[in-house]
Specification:
499 residues, alpha/beta, Rossmann fold, eleven-stranded mixed β-sheet
Length: 499
């Protein structure tokens, strides 16, 4: 029999129930990274006496407001604090049974997002699949990825990757405590989307995360997404410190500047500023995909994929993409991402949808460079090590926004979590009748993979084969889901002259 009160290593927690699923929210997995602990790796949380209430989410970590996505995705007006390192758990019961654990890392470009976002609610997973779901907050933007080693010395050598180390700390907490919630500490699957998938890609390569999870799912991201060199990261740090009035080495100002003021200084640099893991020689010794090639995660099966039209989402945040003439758009891409091979231009021209606007044809270049290339390289690296790899593409096209988004970035999230009923979902994915069937297929595949490392089962209309060096099948989720043989093959060849 399940109970809402559980005993953790740090004290007792009282949760609640919803739709027959138990939940515990706002659980601290570390001491608050404030004051002297700002910009340092985490320390374990303090123990508490009595029973701590765990029926409400904790505050989200410091992050910029984003009105467009708030309206689009139904983001809540959540309290925000530098003290935001909390996790949330959903379980069928805290009854001593060892269930598979799904550990979710949210996306948001390492700038915004939270484990309490309604689309990430774990109720459906726990209810349908007899699994335990964990969602987390982690430090982002300047608080999680401000590279400080060159300006503030060895004490802060890990500051450029604190968001990743937070995830490791949360995984350790889960490893130590999840059995009390009905979970199996030896059967944890990490999964994430966008920056969350980039995080998964880094964790696969990180010795500190070894042994903390058994399987991994990467949705629209890889270890190369938003990855930065020390030089690029330091150049941004210098601009932020100058804007915030912090001189290199001025530790007092670094630790005392109000969090909101530091965040505003960073955001005042304008759009186009990116945060993410740094190959710093301390936390990240080398490129994550190179580490995979050398067997860093050779025993970890992965499920990895993209949406068909990833980059179309960003036509909402940058409408100029839809207004530029073909030559102007190609010239802009050449400036932003470097030379585009003639073979690639020819490939996209030859395979263009003649009924679609030209900008959608050329944004496929960005979809490939930002999302598909890293997916393929990650899959190839793991397959070469003999690990089981399952690749997918999400093809459902949303009718929202006049159809301009098609199968865009983040669109698969409510399907994976089977949360089509959550606030803001219909505004984004529309209400086409095939939604429910696709959600059941994806939800079932993710559950099966978490249980066994294999996504197959009665929930799929045909068998999903393993991706190998010789055979590159991709499962396509659509109104008529099916398997395609190497659908990225021609596109990959078109980029061989550059990548």
């Amino acid at each position: 029999m399940g109970t809402v009160i559980v005993e953790t290593k740090y004290g007792r927690l009282r949760g609640g129930t919803n739709e027959g699923v138990f939940y515990w929210k706002g659980i601290p997995y570390a001491k608050a990274p404030v004051g002297e602990r700002r910009f340092l790796p985490l320390e374990p949380p303090d123990a508490w006496d009595g029973v701590r209430e765990a029926t409400s989410f904790g505050p989200v970590v410091m992050q910029p407001s984003d009105s467009m996505f708030s309206q689009l995705l139904g983001r809540m007006n959540e309290p925000m604090s530098e003290d935001g390192l909390y996790l949330n758990i959903w379980s069928p019961a805290a009854d001593g049974k060892k269930r598979p654990v799904l550990f979710w890392i949210h996306g948001g470009a390492f700038l915004f997002g939270s484990g309490s976002f309604p689309w990430h609610d774990g109720t459906a997973f726990a209810k349908h699949g007899d699994v335990v779901v964990v969602t987390i907050n982690y430090r982002m933007s300047v608080f999680g990825f401000l590279y400080l080693g060159d300006a503030f010395g060895e004490t802060y050598a890990q500051a450029g990757n604190l968001g990743i180390l937070d995830q490791v700390a949360a995984l350790r907490w889960v490893k130590e405590n999840i059995e009390a919630f009905g979970g199996d500490p030896d059967n944890i699957t990490i999964f994430g989307e966008s920056a969350g998938a980039a995080s998964v890609g880094v964790l696969l390569s990180l010795p500190e995360a070894s042994g903390l999870f058994r399987r991994a799912i990467l949705q629209s991201g890889s270890g190369s997404l938003l990855l930065r060199s020390p030089e690029t990261a330091m150049a941004l740090t210098e601009r932020i410190l100058e804007r915030a009035g912090i001189r290199p080495g001025d530790r007092d100002r670094l630790l005392s500047i109000p969090a909101a003021e530091l965040l505003q200084a960073a955001m005042s640099l304008g759009p186009g500023i990116t945060y993410g893991p740094v190959v710093d020689g301390h936390v990240l010794r080398r490129h994550p995909i190179e580490a995979l090639h050398d067997g860093a995660a050779s025993d970890i099966p992965i499920l990895i994929g993209v949406t068909k039209d990833e980059y179309n989402l960003f036509s909402l945040t940058d409408p100029s993409l839809t207004r530029l003439e073909e030559k102007e758009l190609l010239d802009r891409m050449n400036r932003e991402v470097g030379p585009i091979p003639e073979e690639a231009v020819r490939y996209y021209a030859e395979t263009a949808d003649r009924s679609a606007p030209a900008w959608q044809t050329w944004l496929r270049i960005m979809t490939y460079l930002v999302f598909v290339d890293g997916m393929l390289r990650t899959a190839d690296a793991q397959a070469a090590q003999g690990a089981n790899v399952y690749m997918y593409r999400f093809d459902y096209e949303t009718p929202a926004f006049g159809g301009q988004l098609k199968a865009c970035h983040t669109l698969e999230l409510p399907f994976v979590f089977h949360n089509l009923h959550q606030p803001g979902v219909e505004n984004f994915v529309g209400n086409r009748p095939e939604r429910e069937a696709i959600a059941s297929e994806m939800h079932g595949a993710w559950l099966s993979f978490a249980r066994t490392g294999n996504p197959n089962g009665a929930h799929l209309p045909e068998k999903w084969p393993v991706y190998t060096k010789e055979h590159k099948p991709v499962f396509v989720f659509s109104a008529a889901s099916h398997v395609e043989d190497d659908p990225f093959g021609r596109e990959r060849e078109a980029w061989q002259g550059r990548l």
